[in-house]
Amino acid sequence: MKSKVGAKAYRSIGGNIGTFIFLLIIALFMLLPLVFVVSSAFKPLSELFIFPPKLFPMNPTLDNFKDLSSLLGDSWLPFSRYIFNSLAVTVICTFGNIIFSSMAAYVLSKHDFPGKNILFQTVVLSLLFSTVVTGIPNYIIITKLHMINTVWALILPLLPSSLGLFLMKQFMDQMIPDTLLEAARLDGAGENRIFFSICLPLVKPAIMTLLIYSFQGIWNSTGGSYIFDEKLKTLPTALNNIITSGISRTGVSSAVSLLLILPPIAVFLFAQSNVLQTMATSGMKD
Amino acid sequence: MRFVNRKSKSVLATRRDNKGYLYVAPFALGFIFLVLFPMIQSFIYSFNDLLFDGQVHLNFSGLANYRRALFEDVEYRQLLLSAVRDMALSVPVILVFSMIVAVFLNKNFPGRAVFQIIFFIPVIVSSGIIPELFENDLVRTAIVSAPTVSEEAVSSFDTSSMSALLISLNIPVALVNYIMQAIGNILEIVNSSGIQILVFTMGLKSISPSLYEASSIEGATAWESFWKITLPMILPQFVVNLTYTVIDSFVNNNNEIMQSINAYNYSRFDFGYAASLAWMYFAIILIILGVFVGLVNLFSRHYK
After folding, report:
1. What is the dihedral sign for C-alpha A217, A222, A225, A227?
2. What is the pLDDT of residues B139-149, one digit of tens each?
3. A19 vs A13: CA distance, rounded Å
4. What pTM does this model have?
5. A162 interface with B at CB cutoff 8 Å
6. Which residues of A are less than 8 Å from B19 in CB distance?
7. Which CATH number fits the domain that encloses residue B119?
8. Which one has a higher pLDDT value, B27 or A9?
């Protein structure tokens, strides 16, 4: 473990325990919502309406999941269709998010060209803007592109990720030293080579972060008003329909909530070991 | 001869520039058509009365929408004030909190890896179902009513007695109230710090250990090296986090303003008015962000 050598002198068992307890308390707070979602899924309907709600179910049951599966048996399309739609859209958009954001971020971070600052500042400004009111103009644009009710309407609006660009640019500013790129250029590497063989590996932790972040965002997106065709609807849309069809579905909806957060958690577990690893930041000697 | 030299150089330069545009193009095209253009459209809408029946019919109404929001709407100004106040309270707490956690996480102690995983969880669950829980305050009521926490324990740790204690220690009342409010919102604060903790952690890891080594040889305490090394070195991450936190708290859909904009847009179909509300809100976020970043810049000048 590459730790701070200097800090070693101050570390003590007491300090360790203190740190541990402090973090443990915070961690408990962080886990609570998750625990709540999981436990709700196993509560019988009667317990879901108890006020104040209990953190743990008194009589855990699988009824909610049974109800869900019988409901899904009644739906028009096989359930796997929604899952496939969701997975396809999420994978494509997440990949697109990452590659487009990092390409643009690389140029914005390491190159100079006219219009560069304006582009970046506009992107940051757009982050501050509420997406609610751009709903109508977006709808019109998608219509004019003749993409309403096609799979493009699900994918295209999710491809440009302002936040992705913002984060990637900050990470690249920080983690890639100009001197390294200079050296690569002197050795005759072209821009493609520099980007794919030097920059991307160096910002791998950032990419994994963006992967987790984009995945959960896109996974939960519904495609809203652009899609009428049942065959093209995604999982959250289908599940939303179940949830909103009445208060008697509360049990089912809590099971649905649990199912919906499972894929992001799976992606997270896959990516996390890369995210927080000690980074030998740049391969440069300070 | 001179011409030849210039030429070879300039060809290289242009080629690089063109590739630059090529790299930016996919993002820029998507951004301009699907983000920027709709924003501009909504700006135009905000000066119009809008009728939408598949086609958009605009009726220019000048500043009427804005006037209505500022002088006639009974809710908007109050919502705006409370949104700004909430944010002014929560942003510094979130930043300080996530920095402390990141500094702790950067230490070497048993179980660190597990904690690192746990602290990233809020990022995964930040959208989708969890915000609804917060909105209804379900989680908090669940904790308070948890069977393990007896009534007595809750009341003995009552916030009022604790604030009385703090005030008796000669801590300014305003500060005490601020701390109490932060404790009351701990759940929200903890759960909106995921990305921030991560960004700080990355920043901390990029600090060369030799700096700490040198400073400890020179006799600096851990406290001193935090203020003289850690803090200045992670100032860039600080600005990133500041921006992100402000954006996150403002554009959060749980935010009352966002909900009212939502309502005007999707339930009352008052699109022009909703657009004007959103643009005013946008302007205010911008000013606040500017103030915050300006403060950090002042602070960082102190180090140069």
Report:
1. positive
2. 544 444 444 33
3. 10
4. 0.75
5. yes
6. 191-192
7. 1.10.3720.10
8. B27
